[in-house]
Amino acid sequence: MKALLLIDIQNGFCPGGNLPVPEGDQVVPVANALIDSGKYDLIVASQDWHPAGHGSFASAHPGKTPFEMGTLSGKPQMMWPDHCVQNTVDAEFHSDLHTAAVDFIQQKGQNPLVDSYSAFRDNDQAALTGLAAYLRNKGVTELDLCGLATDYCVKFSAIDAVEMLPGVKVRFIEDGSRGIDPAGVNAAIEEMRSRGVTIAHSRDVLA
């Protein structure tokens, strides 16, 4: 059972969004090619789905500015611009993404007291989204993933997939992802590789 996990390919993380990843929209054609390839038995998408005033937003902390470090629930927290607020255009999937083929959407980041990069659990690792159980119940044995952003939500999702889905082959599709910081992207790829994630290109899948 082979699954594709599309991570946070939302307006908020694409050019014109509230927290744009450079070239974020360029992952869409790659994701669509993977979706349309017929190589997958199951297609899943994660969606950042923050309530207004989420604690990771700089606007929720007087005196803080976006991309400044602060604290949330007593732990270090990057202060982000308001982004992917529930039921806003910013939170919607990119309009060109072939969402009709998506079998399941996993929303995340709904607890205002903790951030959620991974599609599998909150950053404090105390609360699970339920995605791992869903994939186990479907009998998934191989999981490819890509999306936004490589150095945050993609990396943490890939590492959690290896840890929480023992025996499942996890593969990161590099050209179907973009990151915020080039140095951070390189570090994320090396960290994923060191944790057992295979680094691949979409041509490896589509061949």
Provide a compact summary of the structure:
This protein has helices at 27-36, 131-137, 150-164, 182-194, 202-206, and strands at residues 2-7, 42-48, 69-72, 75-78, 104-108, 142-147, 169-173, 198-200.
Give an overview of the whole structure.
The chain has 207 residues and is α/β, with parallel strands linked by helices. It has one domain: Rossmann fold, CATH 3.40.50.850. Helix content is 24%, strand content 19%. The protein has helices spanning 27-36, 131-137, 150-164, 182-194, 202-206, and strands at residues 2-7, 42-48, 69-72, 75-78, 104-108, 142-147, 169-173, 198-200. Helix 3 (150-164) runs parallel beside helix 4.
* Structural class determined from secondary elements: alpha/beta
Top CATH class: Alpha Beta
CATH superfamily: Isochorismatase-like
**Estimated helix fraction:** 10-25%
Amino-to-carboxy terminus distance:
19 Å
Biggest pleated sheet: 6 strands, parallel
Tally of separate domains: 1
CATH topology: Rossmann fold
CATH architecture descriptor name = 3-Layer(aba) Sandwich
- Overall pLDDT level: 97
Number of helices: 5
Give the neighbour order of strands across the main sheet. 5-2-1-6-7-8
Could you name the ranges where pLDDT drops below 50 across 5 or more consecutive residues? Answer: none
Q: How do the SSEs run, as a string of H and E?
A: EHEEEEHEHEHEH
Give the oligomeric state. Answer: single chain
Radius of gyration: 16 Å
Q: Note the overall shape.
A: globular
Number of strands: 8
What is the strand content? Answer: 15-25%
